[in-house]
């Protein structure tokens, strides 16, 4: 796909996205096997960590530290499963942006589309570099732990992993799984981020088209120097046809955004539930441990979690602002030049824009900076309470 090529490349490397241009049956079969192996690794690590928490953890500190990694694995496993299961829906969602009325029609609209595409790609690259540095540090720590005779991550296993071959096989399996976890996690977050911002791109293209419509009609009025409504305007049926195309595009943008929310609804839900649980767990641990050596890793982990939430909330907030700005943009156009019927049609668009497009994490939270601010306040309040 031309759009989101970098994001889908991450998915391909992560084992959850077979390139749609592949035609070889052998290549498809091998990649399906690869996908199955990746999913088995994710589910195996998730289940063994859960069993460790249930059967082996016997103090609150171990519970807190083990739960953090477990929640991350649960979230990524959910993301990987949804991407594999809803592959066709994601393909259709991206391809619809390449068809009318979403597809840019002239140079100005191409400029708008290119601006957003470059911004999405730039943010994806920066986020990938940040994740790469993070997973590199984690991998180095895991290798050092393995060299000291400890598994990189605590798990319950149905076999004796203290024997040398099984110990190294398990250690390598955990390290490889965490690398896949990072790739899939980054791929999902940057893809959802990009799909959100494509909604903003569509609103900006829609605004540009509407502005040109009003400008063209104003120019006709100035050239003819006669009454616009009686002579220069198209017939009533033509007016309805022209303006209905813009209303149709406006409705389609909301439909696109709703489809994005439906496809990734469970991803957002798991992400935010996991983030809230991580927040509670990490706040408790930080309040009980004072030394930097005990809390350094957890502090970095908590900051990364806040960055993840911010990516979703910021992009969701941009969609809210852009959808509401349509009404103001119409108001500042030269709408008196239009016919009465066209003014009524524009009024319908303005009324629709008073209800902003919101992405939600199921019933839990609306993705906006206000919600992000509430999460920060909650974490600070909880930390102060536990400190006392």
Automatic annotation (TrEMBL):
Biological process terms in GO annotation: signal transduction
A GO cellular component annotation in the UniProt record: plasma membrane
Protein localization: Cell membrane
Pfam family, one: 7tm_6
Membrane topology of the entry: Multi-pass membrane protein
GO molecular function: odorant binding; olfactory receptor activity
Main location: membrane
Similarity comment: family membership: Belongs to the insect chemoreceptor superfamily. Heteromeric odorant receptor channel (TC 1.A.69) family.
Protein name: Odorant receptor
Organism whose genome encodes this protein: Atta cephalotes (Leafcutter ant)
Primary gene name: 105622725
């Amino acid at each position: 796909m031309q759009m989101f090529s970098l994001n889908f490349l991450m998915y391909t490397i992560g084992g959850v996205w077979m390139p749609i241009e592949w035609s070889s049956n052998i290549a498809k079969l091998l990649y399906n096997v690869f996908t199955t192996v990746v999913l088995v690794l994710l589910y195996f690590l998730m289940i063994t960590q859960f069993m460790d928490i249930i059967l082996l953890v016997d103090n609150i500190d171990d519970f807190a530290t083990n739960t953090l990694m477990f929640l991350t694995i649960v979230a990524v496993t959910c993301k990987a499963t949804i991407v594999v299961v809803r592959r066709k829906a994601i393909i259709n969602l991206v391809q619809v942006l390449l068809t009318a009325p979403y597809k840019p029609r002239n140079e100005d609209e191409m400029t708008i589309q290119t601006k957003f595409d470059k911004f999405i790609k730039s943010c994806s690259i920066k986020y990938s570099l940040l994740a790469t540095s993070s997973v590199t540090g984690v991998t180095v720590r895991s290798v050092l732990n393995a060299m000291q005779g400890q598994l990189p991550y605590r798990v319950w296993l149905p076999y004796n992993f203290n024997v040398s071959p099984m110990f190294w096989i398990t250690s390598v399996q955990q390290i490889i799984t965490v690398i896949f976890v990072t790739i899939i996690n980054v791929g999902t977050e940057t893809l959802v981020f990009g799909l959100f911002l494509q909604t903003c791109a569509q609103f900006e293209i829609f605004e540009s088209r509407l502005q040109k419509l009003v400008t063209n009609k104003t120019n006709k009025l100035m050239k003819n120097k006669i009454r616009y409504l009686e002579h220069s305007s198209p017939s009533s049926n033509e007016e309805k046809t022209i303006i209905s195309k813009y209303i149709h595009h406006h409705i389609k943008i909301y439909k696109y955004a709703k489809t994005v929310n439906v496809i990734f609804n469970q991803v957002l839900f798991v992400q935010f539930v996991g983030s809230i649980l991580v927040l509670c767990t990490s706040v408790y641990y930080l309040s009980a441990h004072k030394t930097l050596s005990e809390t350094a890793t957890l502090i970095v982990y908590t900051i990364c979690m806040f960055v993840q939430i911010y990516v979703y909330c910021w992009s969701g907030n941009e969609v809210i602002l852009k959808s509401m700005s349509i009404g103001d943009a119409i108001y500042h156009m030269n709408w008196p030049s239009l016919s009465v019927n066209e003014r009524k049609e524009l009024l319908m668009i303005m009324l629709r824009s008073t209800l902003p497009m919101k992405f939600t994490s199921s019933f839990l939270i609306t993705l906006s900076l206000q919600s992000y601010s509430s999460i920060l306040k909650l974490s600070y309040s909880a930390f102060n309470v536990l400190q006392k």
